[in-house]
């Protein structure tokens, strides 16, 4: 939920509760004022009744209207004398409807006999007044609430506009492009300071990115040249007939170390390029077909190690990847499946639209599987491996909305690629 929507919702709920409490309080105040007025009139009529009794010492029924009625009945001599206000309903003899009345009940001695006297005052007009006041109050408060809510939304939208403009520009900002971030300088101090900090950070990130990109490009070209030269010279020395066995052994060690250094350099440079997103040519790739092709390319190695290959193809596994990274991803997976396999073992490929699995036989891991995708973590002690293959696989998957998981069951190591569903 957006910040403005959340803020407006909280403001609306708070205002609604406050207005309802205010409306209830006003309704009670109006009701009490009207009741006080009616009760005051009833007390006046009580005094008139008492004055009439003192003058005549008797009471006779007289015609009355619905709006004003006095009822006098004999009471028990032991009845306690007290004055009570209460609400009651009386049937209107004209339209046969119950009408609300406010009633004052008290006891009066008439001709030496205690009588119960009930004086009633119609509340129909008072209720209509309360309804009119309440309806008007609710209407005006509702209009005020909606007006304040609308005004709050417009005001917040205008105040927060620089923030959303900054957010939109940051979303479009790409380190791989040379364009600067170029944020606005709004009039609100907090947003202006935020933009200044973000501008400095973006400029620093671009500067560091360019330096790192230049370093990786230079290292990719400059370091490979002397390594290739060393390998060529060492190969020439190995072919020389004048070397002793010990010298040949030493030169072979140099040659293997040089080759390992070359692979290590290539792996680290590839990791740096992936992290810097220097591969922009993303396109649809059928990883299932590419994986099968890689297995066909190493068929001689598989025959030499007596490794059988089985393929269960339900549907092709397609995703978006730069072709070079797709090739690197599959090469590392296949190389890992062969290197950690065993003679007479097998490699299994299972493919569906949402999942691609590559399994190989092998001994159970001696290290923690959680460290399998970390850099320079090797299960075997082979000198050929530099410990970057699965780290490269993991980084490619994390960068291009794929997940890779490892599982060992029944003597089979399984690496599974799946598509990550973005929210």
Automatic annotation (TrEMBL):
The chain crosses the membrane at residues 12-34, 129-151. Its EC number is 2.7.13.3. Residues 218-411 form the Histidine kinase domain. Pfam families: HATPase_c (PF02518), HisKA (PF00512). It catalyses: ATP + protein L-histidine = ADP + protein N-phospho-L-histidine. One of its GO terms (cellular component) is plasma membrane. GO terms for molecular function: phosphorelay sensor kinase activity. SUPFAM superfamilies: ATPase domain of HSP90 chaperone/DNA topoisomerase II/histidine kinase, Homodimeric domain of signal transducing histidine kinase. Keywords: Kinase, Membrane, Phosphoprotein, Transferase, Transmembrane, Transmembrane helix. The keyword Phosphoprotein applies. This is histidine kinase. It comes from Spirosoma profusum.
């Amino acid at each position: 939920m957006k910040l403005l929507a959340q803020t407006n919702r909280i403001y609306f709920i708070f205002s609604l509760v406050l207005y309802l409490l205010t409306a209830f309080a006003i309704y009670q105040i109006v009701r009490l004022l009207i009741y006080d007025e009616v009760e005051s009139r009833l007390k006046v009529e009580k005094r008139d009744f008492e004055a009439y009794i003192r003058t005549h010492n008797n009471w006779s029924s007289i015609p009355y209207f619905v709006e004003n009625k006095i009822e006098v009945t004999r009471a028990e001599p032991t009845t306690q004398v007290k004055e009570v206000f209460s609400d009651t309903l009386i049937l209107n003899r004209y339209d046969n409807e119950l009408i609300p009345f406010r009633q004052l009940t008290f006891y009066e001695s008439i001709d030496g006999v205690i009588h119960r006297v009930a004086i009633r005052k119609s509340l129909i007009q008072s209720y209509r007044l309360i309804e009119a006041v309440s309806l008007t109050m609710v209407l005006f408060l509702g209009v005020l609430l909606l007006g304040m809510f609308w005004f709050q939304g417009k005001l917040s939208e205008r105040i927060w506009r620089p923030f959303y403009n900054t957010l939109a520009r940051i979303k479009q900002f790409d380190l791989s492009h040379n364009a600067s971030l170029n944020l606005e300088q709004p009039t609100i101090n907090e947003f202006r300071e935020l933009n200044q900090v973000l501008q400095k950070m973006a400029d620093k990130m671009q500067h560091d990115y360019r330096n790192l990109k230049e370093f990786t490009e230079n290292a990719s070209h400059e370091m490979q040249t002397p390594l290739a030269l060393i390998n060529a010279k060492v190969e020439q020395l190995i072919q020389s007939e004048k070397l002793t066995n010990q010298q040949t052994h030493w030169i072979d060690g140099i040659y293997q170390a040089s080759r390992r250094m070359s692979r290590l350099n290539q792996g680290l440079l590839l990791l740096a390029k992936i992290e810097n997103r220097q591969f922009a040519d993303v396109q649809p790739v059928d990883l299932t077909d590419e994986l099968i092709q890689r297995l066909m390319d190493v068929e001689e190695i598989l025959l030499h190690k007596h490794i059988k290959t089985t393929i269960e193809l339900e549907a092709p596994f397609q995703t978006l990847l730069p072709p070079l990274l797709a090739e690197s991803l599959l090469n590392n997976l296949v190389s890992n499946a062969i290197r950690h396999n065993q003679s007479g073992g097998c490699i299994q490929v299972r493919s569906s639209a949402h999942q691609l699995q590559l399994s190989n036989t092998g001994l159970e891991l001696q290290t923690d599987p959680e460290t399998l995708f970390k850099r320079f973590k090797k299960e075997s002690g082979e000198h050929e491996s530099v410990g970057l293959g699965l780290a490269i696989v993991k980084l490619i998957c994390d960068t291009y909305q794929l997940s890779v998981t490892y599982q060992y069951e029944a003597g089979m190591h399984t690496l599974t690629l799946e598509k990550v569903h973005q929210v």
